[in-house]
């Protein structure tokens, strides 16, 4: 699409109308895009066409329709965070991520739906309702970037942004059959931010294939003087070549494969089957696949402690002022942070350092780690979360998300790539993890895997 726009084979106006038609067709049922503003989008598309006609150099996203995740501030555009407390919020600034998307020439059309304050891997809120899975609308689209993943899979947008604390880029990508990348800490800088010195959450790209993820990463990544811990490589480092191929190969790749990180979590039998088939694909393409995983024994305590601490610091005062305006699961997570001590938080940070060092050592002997993205396939949309896996009860809201959030606290980049389907045809992704800072290599591996599984992995 970007190439066709630059070659004037299609105008930004025409491309926008095609997407608006698709939105009109699918969105009323799926509820992926919220705060749609067709008039403003048409004005932006007209400006894009006029700029190209005037000879201005087009940006990498020139003329591409784009809906921004509803937890990212867009100046002058309703941004609710999925909370009734912010139902009428209209920011006076763009987040840095949005600055870069606009600056690259994208045509904004609206926002993508999220769970309340992006807390959770099922997208529903009292402002806009529930986002449904485009492959089976009785199922969840995942979260918290569920609206983004759904809009991609349904053809309503060509690219999408998201954010990921405990799996919010990876889980919905798996549920909807698209690609989602959680970058290394520091790769996609965030501004403004309450805490520039430490975070569990990162922004990142989603798309229908790996090369398109690389295209969007090339826009989102790169240093910014307002973000002191941003990694220094320019975003253009990750841009795909003109032919779209990232040049990856699986031959000789050293793959550490684990279904459950040594019994750290339960995995649905159908998800396990697809994940094991992915290992076979890798081996068949020449990779050296061995059963291996790093010791992430402290990761569960580390994530839960830091998540509760972040939630309490961010939302504690708001919850105290509006105790009835938060969903129960989020309120409980915020209150869990009230009882943490300085020693608890210090322990979590020390553990996080230990976990990062173990990952570094693991990647001396392995190029990537492969494991499930989500422990379950897409579950019923009227359930808040799966309460059991293979008959084993999930005692807390977070239990079914361990396969994603245990990787979060290592700080390493991880990508969800479609790997297969359940017997009912529901998408299942596989998670590929690389050393911190190795996004280029990770994208090459993911693209090579994507090429090997081919259409068989697509819903």
Automatic annotation (TrEMBL):
Residues 14-443 form the Amidase domain. GO terms for molecular function: catalytic activity. Pfam families: Amidase. PROSITE patterns: AMIDASES. This is Amidase. It comes from Nocardioides donggukensis. The lineage of its organism: Bacteria, Bacillati, Actinomycetota, Actinomycetes, Propionibacteriales.
